[in-house]
Amino acid sequence: MKHLEDLLLLGDPRLYEICEPVMYEELHLVKEWTSDLHNVMEEIRAKYNFGRAIAAPQLGIMKRLIYMNIDKPVVFINPVFENLSEEKFELWDDCMSFPNLLVKVKRHKSLTINYLDENWQPQSWKMEDALSELLQHEYDHLDGILCTMRAIDNQSFRWRL
User: Fold this and answer.
1) For the chain: N or C, fewer Cβ within 10 A?
2) Which architecture does CATH list for 4-159?
3) Which residues participate in catalysis according to the annotation?
4) Domain boundaries of the chain, sorted by first residue
5) What whole-number distance in Å separates Cα of residue 22 and Cα of residue 118?
């Protein structure tokens, strides 16, 4: 079982790598990966009082997998975006890999995410506002992009108080 100390932190070169798709033959591993993601996210919530989702590469699992738990757990395997809105909004983004730093970014107001669930069944979900922003942040991790790389300008950083 992975713990908070297994979380990759800002500067770790693995956070900048593009992840590989989860293969059907690896489906049996998804439950273990999801359990690790859940455990670390709960530890982050307990220590820092935030955390709605986490991407597999943040634990060094270099696969296209996102775990979200707001009202109930949702597993996104090999997600793909479509219908990204032209309208964007600004927000202060946070990240478990640098929990005390906030970064001002712009995100699409809405999108549709297509993915496979933990039973390898295709799913589609239209998201807006906070959910849209959250999944864009996590999806970026799958492509080796951190919110620090999406900062609006070089004054778009502040410490969490």
Assistant:
1) C
2) Alpha-Beta Complex (3.90)
3) 138
4) 4-159
5) 11
